[in-house]
User: What shape does this take?
Amino acid sequence: MAAVAFLGLGVMGGPMAGHLAKAGHDTRVYNRTAARAEAWAKANNGKAFTDISEAVRGADVVCACVSADADVRAVFEAARPAMGKGAVFVDHSTASAKLARELAAAAAAAGFGFLDAPVSGGQAGAEAGRLTVMIGGAATDVSNAEPVLKAYAANVTHVGPAGAGQLAKMVNQICIAGVVQGLAEGLHFAQAADLDVSAVIAAISKGAAQSWQMENRWKTMDEGRFDFGFAVDLMRKDLGLVLDEARANGARVPVAALVDQFYAEIQAMGGRRWDTSSLIARLNRQA
Amino acid sequence: MAAVAFLGLGVMGGPMAGHLAKAGHDTRVYNRTAARAEAWAKANNGKAFTDISEAVRGADVVCACVSADADVRAVFEAARPAMGKGAVFVDHSTASAKLARELAAAAAAAGFGFLDAPVSGGQAGAEAGRLTVMIGGAATDVSNAEPVLKAYAANVTHVGPAGAGQLAKMVNQICIAGVVQGLAEGLHFAQAADLDVSAVIAAISKGAAQSWQMENRWKTMDEGRFDFGFAVDLMRKDLGLVLDEARANGARVPVAALVDQFYAEIQAMGGRRWDTSSLIARLNRQA
Assistant: This one.
């Protein structure tokens, strides 16, 4: 078992750190709001710290799960002086590939490893310990971190060098944007055509239109309930990363850009915390 | 076993009729180009007719698989005088819901049944006898036709009244338009970002971005090979039906409309017979 520090105990990080403790790792946690770390430590029989460097000192693997680039940079900088030689800093946040490359270089210069390791699977996946982790970085660091990550991951894939994990997460979000919008239009059309939606789904969900989103979200979308997953505000953050990166690498992502604008409309409709399937609410909206 | 007539022996109808004969039905075929019906009859030990009414006379179930509304109307009108009382005309073509309602009324007035029963599963599904059939029409007609359709269908779903089969097929195509475009943008982005695409797919294909299209088309899309399914010309025909219907029922289908325009660009690139996954070719095109 390893000594592990976990920084950021949000809806993802809290259960992820819980799986580490349950697996028997010596788990030290830090959270910006200290009360949450205290509560976590009590519930999980672990150790809470109010100072990142104290949480990190002596850890073999340091995991972070925070929000955006600025937060990642802040926890990384706070951890850096306390990172041991050969330790690995694993960033589970969804952030830019540019930042991942920068922090990987800074870590290498200081004698420890850095992995950009965004996750998919959402809160349900974190709670079940069934996340998918896509990793950019050096193979030896991946090998060292993987036994720890297995505590909460069903799949760990080393995609490529520093930044590749973030880029793979962007590919994931681009695909989802198209799938969910197509599904939203299909269900909205079915409603407008007065079809029995469950019969339509029964007819089409085994063939070329099939998707995870269709299987898992058609019913709640049809019912107009949007409390089942990843929030619109977070999806807009991720699509912002996609559009920045596409501007840099020259990729054309017209529907991802359009769907990002649709989500902006949903935010304006009051749907900042609705899940991503709320694209149908925008179509169903009365003029 | 039933007496069945099959009208239209194209890449779908040919193998579908073959499965009927193989299942032991008395199968009589007609094709606009008579030589194709003769060849089919020789290969399948069946009977070819050069006149639709002769093929249809005495049949319990008459199946048609032709191209567009005008073709459906033509074969229906030719069959009508020869249809027996209580027989069922099953139209497997993808056509408008309006035509389906009109022909269902005409059939009812003449004492026989009409089902709009478009299929999905493509040429491969037809050859394997594993098509999905989505049906609009009266329940008794569905019950009468279903034992015959099982010869080439893995799934037969009665979606609703006349027209509902065509509308369900439209929902299918709307969903596919979003899925394929999202996947095309994701793969194009992955290429632009210089990622190992197979590693990315390994990382994301079990989660919320998963789709039939991702599983079955990512590799050929990544390689720029577009000879694996439903042709762009046919998809444009189907999206035309979608857009006409949406104009009538008030549904909003912005991405389906956009993807239809993208397919128009692919036609202009020489891709009329490429498969629908060729959306990535448009993104990868050099300026």
Notes: The radius of gyration of chain A is 20 Å. Chain A has a mean pLDDT of 97. The longest strand of chain A covers residues 153-160.
